[in-house]
Structures are given as structure tokens and as C-alpha cells.
Design a protein that fits this description.
Radius of gyration: 22 Å
Largest sheet: 7 strands, antiparallel
Bound molecules: iron/sulfur cluster
Structural class: alpha+beta
Number of strands: 21
Shape: globular
Distance between the termini: 22 Å
Oligomer: single chain
Length: 490
């Protein structure tokens, strides 16, 4: 059992859940153990399940389990079952496919070309359509995961070499994918043409690594080399590192929410420190939406860097007015409604002596359904706050994500249903303001959002999706509902 849980338990389904994390290593004495360490650093990207596949030069070995990396991959006997100098792994938060061991990655299949293991971060937005075609042609699926589609596309490709089959498969995909694949021909890493999900390369000794975030490189003592470029496919093998660009060049659109919320603040994403970006978002928020207050208080932990930025820009002192317990685990919250409704108070508690009689500017990273905000505002009122002004370090989340982030359907997004004034009323804030989309881009070092060529995917704020959404657009309403039910895990 974990003694600390640095990640949000979410009894109300009111935080956006990260997508997944991937990690692969080539040529290491203790490849599986290194992957376990890397996955541990990526645990914030998915806490439902984890898996590792290794290759010993002859055979592939896989261990997959529900739950956290610690507890499943910290035992020598488990690591001993994963021999070899090459391995890849995955942490998962379910965004497509039910939560079940058969959907836990890496997924593995024996193809005509040999073993093929795949770990995927993202979501294939035409997976349902591809799957139907593949099933019609005789493919037998083992899971309900969109990732398995990739395996069947590779398996049934008429191209001759594994690499050509793989590229043929990729060209049929739509949506977001950062992939790490283990094959007898080497470790293959690739990113979708828009680079929606991150993927970086690093090196420790002679071992080469690919990982979702730089923090996973730090943890194993590896040096950051570079990002895998959007649309790039990298093959790491005994012949060295080969880079391929199989897609027509296009302007990248990496996920802007990685900077706002998903990535760890100690990671470097798109060349920028996530921590520094979040502080700049807070500073922009202070410029755009100033308020007279006595204290700047973050909703911990994710609101902290933006609150520091807000406080520094506004001159309103930063204080830890809400203390977060790091000892709240899902198992404690889940047993029944009587305990369940206490969730927020168990996780967050007002620092009463600080709050009493003060005018608070409260900083949070986002509002999803709003249920958590309601409880936190009430908690501050109960602690004697004279005023609470809520400032949000992202624009209103009005649209669902189809690229691997678990958002509720639109009908459940508060900002899709209410104006900002109505939201302030509903939450019980004296005032409410979100950073503007242009302000967010300014915090990222841009002059503002270029509507003709936006530099990021910002679809959950703007509705401007950078790819087709075939499954969402083409399917009959009943099928869409079924798809949604698969995507949304509460
Ligand atoms: S829709 Fe939002 S969360 Fe999803 S990839 Fe785009 S910016 Fe990121």
C-alpha cells in the first residue's frame, strides 16, 4: 500500500485525468528496473494500471498489473521475470477501452515479422471505424483499447518490411499518438504529425531512452537529448539511431494543457520549463484580472506555481491557506457515500488562523464540473474568509478532448453550460475570472493566439480541433454514446 499519494483522488470526477505515460530503454543492464523507475516518475499521467515488456534477444516478457507502479514493479521477483537489455513500459489512465487487465499496456502480439509490443499515449480518433473494417476482414481483437488497432493494421499491412508496415499503419491513424514499440528490429518511437502528445529522448551511459516527460529522464540520471519531433519516427537498434519523417510536413499543434496541468512542473515541455510557464500564466492572470485582496492562496498542489506568479505580479502575499493531505488514497474514499462526500475535506483543509477575516484571491488550474470548487469555496467561507475571488489559470474548458485526456462529455463541463457570471454564482465566489486564450499564449511566449495558425492544440478551450474526429462525427448517435461510455471512466 502507498503511504503517500501525491496525486488527486477524485471522488467527484471533477479533475481532468492525465492520459498515459510511456517509457522505453535500449541497451541497459537492468532495462526493466530502469523502466519501472521511469514509469514511477510518470505516475501522475496514469494511476490505474502499469505494464512493462522486455526483450532478451530471443523472447519477449510482459508483466501488467492494475494499480500503481510502486507495489507492482518494486519487487525483485517481478523485475527478474523481465530479463533483457531492452524494455518499454506504460502507465495508464483509461481514456479508451474499459478498465481491465486486457487493456493494460504494453499490448503484445506475435506478428509474421516477430514479436511486437506497443505502448501508446494519446487517443486514435478514428479507431472505432478502423476497428470495424479490421473485424470485417477477419481481425480478432483481444481488448477494447484503441491501441490494439495499430497492431492489427501492422499485422495486415501488405508492405514487406516491418518498418514499412508500421508506417503504413500510422498513415491510417487520425488523432494523437506518442508510441514506443519493442520489436526484434529495435525500439521504435514515434509521434503523430501534429505532436499532440509529448515524447523526449535521453541518454544515460550507452543506454538510449524515450519517455513522455523529461522528469522520467531525471529520475534515472539520464541527460535530455531532444524531443522526438512531431511526425518523426525514430528507430533505435544495434545500427544506431535512425530518424524517419514519413508524413508530409505540417505545423505542429502540441497539447497546451500539458503546460497548464498535465505535465509535472519539473519537466521541460516544448523547450520550456513547465513551472516557469505556470508562473507566467499566474502573472498574466494578475494583469488581466486584478482584484483587491489580502492573500493569494493556491488550491494545492496544481495551483501553486500560478499562484506564485499571481502573487509576484500583484504584490498580494502568497500564503498556504489550504493544506493538502498527502495521505488520502482512493481506497479510503471509496467505501460508501457517507465517507465519499467527505472527500474534499479529507484532501484539503483550510488553514483557519490565516484565512479568518481575510479577502482571498484563490488560484486553481481549471474548472471541470465545478463540484470541487463549490466545496473549496464553502470551506474557505466556513473558515471565516471575508471575500473569495477565484482566478483560474486556464481558459474556460468548454469542449471535450478526443486526444487522450479524460474529459467529461460537454454536457457535464460547467463552462459549456453557464456564463462566467453564472459560474461565479454557482460556485459561490465573490468574483470569478479565467485567463484569456491570448493571455495563455502570451505566457507561452507568443504574442497571442494566431487564429490562422495556432501553435498549440487548444481545442478544449476553443473547439478548434486540429484533426478530423471521424468516430465522433461519423457514428450514429447511439454509437457515439457507446463510444463516450467507453471513454469516460468515473
Ligand atoms: S483538446 Fe485540450 S486536453 Fe486535448 S489535446 Fe487539445 S489542448 Fe490538450
Amino acid at each position: 500500500m502507498l503511504t503517500t499519494n501525491p496525486f488527486d483522488s477524485d471522488p467527484d470526477g471533477d479533475v481532468l485525468h492525465e492520459e498515459c505515460g510511456v517509457f522505453g530503454i535500449w541497451d541497459a543492464d537492468t532495462a526493466a528496473a530502469m523502466v519501472a523507475l521511469g514509469l514511477h516518475a510518470l505516475q501522475h499521467r496514469g494511476q490505474e494500471a502499469a505494464g512493462i515488456t522486455s526483450w532478451d534477444g530471443q523472447q519477449f516478457h510482459t508483466h501488467r498489473a492494475m494499480g500503481h507502479v510502486a507495489g507492482n514493479f518494486d519487487k525483485p521477483d517481478v523485475i527478474d521475470m523481465l530479463p533483457g537489455r531492452v524494455a518499454c513500459g506504460h502507465v495508464r489512465y483509461s481514456t479508451a477501452g474499459e478498465t481491465a487487465l486486457r487493456n493494460v499496456q504494453p499490448l503484445f502480439a506475435e506478428l509474421a515479422s516477430g514479436g511486437f509490443a506497443v505502448a501508446h499515449n494519446g487517443n486514435i480518433s478514428n479507431a472505432v471505424k478502423l476497428r470495424r473494417t479490421l473485424i470485417h476482414r477477419g481481425s480478432i481483437f483481444q481488448s477494447t483499447s484503441d491501441t490494439e488497432t495499430i497492431i492489427h493494421l501492422v499485422a495486415t499491412s501488405s508492405y514487406r518490411t516491418l518498418l514499412d508496415k508500421f508506417i503504413d499503419a500510422l498513415k491510417q491513424l487520425e488523432g494523437a499518438y506518442s508510441l514506443v514499440c519493442l520489436t526484434p528490429e529495435g525500439l521504435i518511437a514515434c509521434r503523430d504529425p501534429l505532436g499532440i502528445r509529448p515524447l523526449v529522448m535521453g541518454k544515460v551511459g550507452d543506454s538510449l531512452i524515450v519517455a513522455s516527460e523529461t522528469v522520467a529522464l531525471d529520475v534515472v540520471g539520464a541527460k535530455f537529448l531532444r524531443e522526438v519531433e512531431p511526425g518523426e519516427l525514430v528507430v533505435i537498434s544495434e545500427q544506431g539511431v535512425r530518424s524517419h519523417h514519413p508524413f508530409a510536413p505540417t505545423a505542429p499543434r502540441p497539447c497546451v494543457f500539458e503546460q497548464v496541468y498535465f505535465s509535472r512542473p519539473d519537466s521541460i515541455v516544448n523547450g520550456s520549463s513547465v513551472y516557469a510557464v505556470r508562473k507566467r500564466i499566474g502573472a498574466e492572470l494578475a494583469l488581466e484580472s486584478p482584484v483587491e485582496a489580502d492573500l493569494t492562496i493556491p488550491v494545492p498542489d496544481s495551483g501553486v506555481p500560478a499562484a506564485i506568479g499571481y502573487a509576484q505580479q500583484s504584490g498580494i502575499p502568497f500564503e498556504l491557506g489550504i493544506i493538502r493531505s498527502h495521505y488520502v488514497g482512493r481506497t479510503f474514499i471509496q467505501p460508501g457515500d457517507q465517507v465519499r462526500h467527505l472527500g474534499v475535506k479529507l484532501k484539503h483543509n483550510a488553514n483557519r488562523t490565516l484565512i479568518d477575516g481575510q479577502r482571498i484571491v484563490l488560484i486553481d488550474d481549471s474548472i471541470v464540473r465545478g463540484t470541487t470548487s463549490v466545496k473549496i469555496l464553502q470551506m474557505l467561507r466556513d473558515a471565516g474568509a471575508a471575500e473569495v475571488h477565484l482566478r483560474i489559470a486556464s481558459p474556460p474548458t468548454r469542449h471535450s478532448c478526443f486526444y487522450g485526456v479524460d474529459t467529461p462529455e460537454r454536457a457535464k463541463l460547467l463552462a459549456a453550460q453557464m456564463t462566467v457570471a453564472e459560474m461565479a454564482d454557482y460556485i459561490g465566489a465573490d468574483s470569478l475570472a479565467f485567463i484569456s486564450v491570448d493571455g495563455l499564449y502570451r505566457a507561452l511566449g507568443e504574442p497571442g493566439r494566431d487564429a490562422e495558425r495556432p501553435h498549440y492544440c487548444d481545442a478544449c478551450f476553443t473547439g478548434d480541433y486540429p484533426t478530423h474526429l471521424t468516430d465522433h462525427e461519423d457514428l450514429a448517435p447511439a454509437d457515439q454514446l457507446a463510444l463516450l461510455a467507453e471513454r469516460v471512466v468515473v
